[in-house]
Design brief:
This protein is α+β, with helices and mostly antiparallel strands. It has one domain (2-122). It has three helices and eight strands, in the order αβββαβαββββ. A six-stranded antiparallel beta sheet has the order 3-4-8-7-6-5. Strands 1-2 form a two-stranded antiparallel sheet. A hairpin with a 2-residue loop joins strand 5 (76-81) and strand 6. The longest helix is centred in the N-terminal third of the chain and has 16 residues, at 2-17.
């Protein structure tokens, strides 16, 4: 029974993480509307890189996502093109990075993904 309960909880968490996010923010940075949290990539960031970060995906273009973050107060663009963009924000002695890419390679390898990746990380 215990294993069934744990399995059910993990299943609920997994499916809940694939629902689009509206109005969420991390480190004072708003998450792009409709982006979906990717739990596998986020676990890799936290475990392998030891970073405090959040990994989102969206079907929207790089252009739409970079335009959204260009309007965000306090962010500085480090450059963008048709394949991605980089933004930075200094906040209370920490640096917040926003990395946008399309296409992108999953952390475990495999097929290249053609949706847009949004990584929000705190150094």
């Amino acid at each position: 029974m215990r294993y069934m309960t744990v399995g059910l909880i993990m299943l609920i968490i997994t499916f809940a993480s694939f629902t689009p996010v509206y109005g969420a923010e991390h480190f004072g940075i708003q998450v792009y509307k409709g982006a979906r949290l990717d739990p596998e990539e986020m676990a890799f960031i936290k475990k392998s890189m030891g970073a405090d970060g959040y990994f989102y995906r969206t079907g929207d273009s790089v252009e739409k996502v970079t335009a959204f973050y260009r309007k965000h107060p306090g962010l500085t663009s480090l450059g963008d093109d048709k394949n991605g963009g980089r933004f930075i924000k200094d906040e209370g002695g920490h640096t917040i990075y926003i990395v946008i890419d399309n296409p992108w390679q999953p952390s475990k390898g495999g097929e290249v993904n053609t949706d847009t990746k949004i990584l929000i990380m705190k150094e």
